[in-house]
Amino acid sequence: MVGLLAGAAGCGGSTGGSAGGATAAPSAAMPMPTPTPADGDGSGLAQLPGQAFYVSDRTSAARQLADLRGQGRTAEADALLRIAAQPSSQWLGEEAARGIAEQVSRRAAESDRTPVFVAYNIPHRDCGLYSAGGAADAASYRSWITGVAEALGDRRAWVVLEPDAVAHTLDSCGVKGDVAAERYGLLAFAVQELKKRPQVRVYLDAGNPGWAQDPSAMAEALRRSGIGAADGFAVNVSNFYGTDRDAEYGGRLSAALGGKHFVIDTSRNGNGPLGGDAWCNPPGRALGDPPTADTGRPGVDAYLWIKNPGESDGECGRGEPRAGEFWLPYALGLARAAR
């Protein structure tokens, strides 16, 4: 879920001059799978010793792992375990978000771990592209985010708030004027509602190093979106930029925001970007650093797998799986290429 590259999909992302020359997509698209209310699916996943974040046995990768084991496909299962055994985020969209947030946060609390959620339901989502949708209007969004916040209650949770939403007000995707002002107000409301929960941390999405080229403009947009009350911001959501470059971009933005902390999506950045405008299911990519709250980088609160590795970015004009569908060959490629 999450927006698509301007040049390839008609939205207005800017071009980033990374070492690989990659064009910066907004984050790659990914609609949310919905967990069932049943007990664990038998994939046998355990919480990793010393890991702060929750490993769910209900992710797409975990379910595929159980299927592979059941079919005796041991080599593929062993490779996929590199994804399934790591904590990744639970995306929340328009459907059943409150129930999913409550269910996952309760299971995480029972395991004494912290779940990571991605709230992704802003009106005019993704500029009408692969992940189009979102709440019908401002009132619907306020009701939706209040429900999510209430579902989390007094349990621990981290929430990455609305990937692409701020950055799309700074590109050519049409979120301008009164629409942008409404969006900033909705994001500030979401931060306020979520921060009413005593153990919820909130990170507003701040694009990636190749998309958001002007830290001062991004900083001002984040201020209008309530960053002052949030715990920080997120960078590289669903993208491929290397951790060093993400940290440099985040550091400049942090300086413009009075030292706000941030998190980095390392889910697929192990080999960095492919180059050119290859943002949609690019080949040869790899898993990045595993999720951890011990990054060793001042101001970087965590490396997170915000994008769920193995879920497609979209059809990509090549007939590939829909955005959000788990794609085993791609997942295995990411896992096998990881260091």
Automatic annotation (TrEMBL):
Q: Which SUPFAM superfamilies match?
A: Glycosyl hydrolases family 6, cellulases (SSF51989)
Does DNA damage count among this protein's keywords? no
Keywords attached to this Swiss-Prot or TrEMBL record, sorted alphabetically, are: Carbohydrate metabolism, Cellulose degradation, Disulfide bond, Glycosidase, Hydrolase, Polysaccharide degradation, Signal
EC number(s) for this protein? 3.2.1.-
Where are the annotated segments for Disordered? 14-47
> Where are the compositionally biased (Low complexity) regions?
21-31
The first-level EC class reads hydrolase
Gene Ontology molecular-function annotations: hydrolase activity, hydrolyzing O-glycosyl compounds
Keyword rRNA-binding assigned to the entry: answer is no
Coiled-coil ranges from the UniProt annotation: none
Q: Which GO terms describe its biological process?
A: cellulose catabolic process
Residues involved in substrate binding:
91, 211, 239, 279, 307, 311
List the active site.
126, 164 (proton donor), 313 (proton acceptor)
- Return the similarity comment: Belongs to the glycosyl hydrolase family 6.
Annotated PANTHER family: 1,4-BETA-D-GLUCAN CELLOBIOHYDROLASE C-RELATED, PTHR34876
State what protein this is by name. Answer: Glucanase
